[in-house]
Amino acid sequence: METLIVHAEIQTVNIPLLEQFFKRINAKKVVFEKKDPTEMSEKEYFAMIDEAIQQEGKKVTIEELRQRYLK
């Protein structure tokens, strides 16, 4: 039998429904992982810094960026 691996981001309220569905179809290796909302990819991190640098107003030094983001 051919199999397929599925990755999806879903709302936590839907987990019980999906658990029942996967049990009904005898799915193997079902794993639900909670994503940490404070984590971001390296690309997102540097995009955030670039956006902050481009804003007019208060100037930000490299040292301030290190203190804020490299704790």
Textual characterization of the structure:
The protein has 71 residues and is mainly alpha-helical. The protein contains 3 helices and no strands. It has helices at residues 15-24, 42-54, 62-69. It starts with 14 loop residues before the first helix and ends with a helix.
Mean pLDDT: 84
Low-confidence stretches at least 5 residues in length (pLDDT < 50)? none
Query: Given the structure, what is the number of helices?
Result: 3
Main sheet, how many strands, which sense, barrel? Answer: none
Could you give the count of β-strands? 0
Strand content: under 5%
Shape: elongated
In N-to-C order, the SSE pattern is HHH
* Distance N to C terminus: 49 Å
**Helicity level, as a percent range?**
40-55%
- Label the structural class: mainly alpha
Radius of gyration in whole Å, from Cα? 20 Å
Task: Characterize this entry briefly.
With 71 residues, the chain is mainly alpha-helical. The protein is built from three helices and no strands.
